[in-house]
Specification:
The protein is an alpha+beta fold and 211 residues long. It has helices at residues 11-17, 24-37, 53-59, 70-75, 92-99, 141-147, 154-167, 183-189, 199-203; strands at 6-9, 21-23, 48-50, 64-66, 78-81, 136-139, 151-153, 171-172, 175-179, 194-195, 207-208.
Length: 211
């Protein structure tokens, strides 16, 4: 069916966007247009958005909001997803879409259970519970400074980086797969352009398992 990417908007977002339903990425885009047009990035730290009167309906009484947590803040302003017009038949797709709205704000992590990776080794010593991309990792000072956190799951690290890249227009206009690091990103990735595919490889030295 059509329109699965869209959600009904609750009053605050409805007022801001002038729409009753809209995809999350479109809402984020409209917020960033407003931020750029009104110069609302904190001059002392561009990762923070200064909350003006128009954004207050969405973000409440906060003076500023970190671009990385903006997505999480928006979750509560979305209603049910828009499905087909007729009576709803819970298909597999519907179930998987609904599971995204449980407030965990982690749509990218897929519920794949890697039993081989977890569990015990032959010697029966190691047991990695909740391993893989969902496990929290410790960020290097440089990466922590960029994302405004000291520990995060890998999925959130990648999502936060893409939020930062898009907000600061760091994709090469002639080749969107290529990222052109700014001063903050150079501290983590070096000064050479890199691709989304090589991001995890370059992140490796900046991610360590907690003690």
């Amino acid at each position: 069916g059509k329109g699965w990417g869209e959600s009904y908007l609750k009053p605050a977002l409805m007022e801001f966007t002038g729409k009753t339903q809209c995809g999350r990425s479109e809402v984020v885009k409209l917020i960033w247009q407003h931020v750029k047009a009104n110069d609302l990035q904190d001059p002392t730290d561009k990762r923070y958005i200064v909350v003006d009167d128009r954004l207050r309906g969405i973000f409440g009484q906060k003076k500023r909001v970190h671009m990385f947590t903006m997505n999480k803040e928006l979750t509560k302003h979305f209603g049910e997803r828009v499905g087909s017009q007729g009576p709803s038949r819970p298909s597999q797709k519907a179930k998987s879409e609904d599971s995204d709205d449980d407030g965990d704000d982690e749509p990218e992590s897929k519920p794949v259970k890697r039993k081989a990776a977890g569990g015990t080794t032959k010697s029966g010593k190691k047991r990695k519970a909740g391993g893989g991309f969902a496990a929290e990792v410790v960020l290097s000072p440089e990466l922590g400074n960029l994302l405004g956190a000291s520990t995060l799951p890998r999925t959130e690290v990648v999502r936060g980086l893409w939020t930062y890249i898009k907000a600061n227009s760091l994709q090469n206009p002639s080749n969107k797969n290529q990222i052109l690091p700014d001063a903050q990103m150079k501290m983590v990735f070096g000064s050479e352009p890199f691709t989304g595919f090589s991001m995890m490889k370059l992140l490796k030295p900046h991610l360590t398992k907690p003690e």
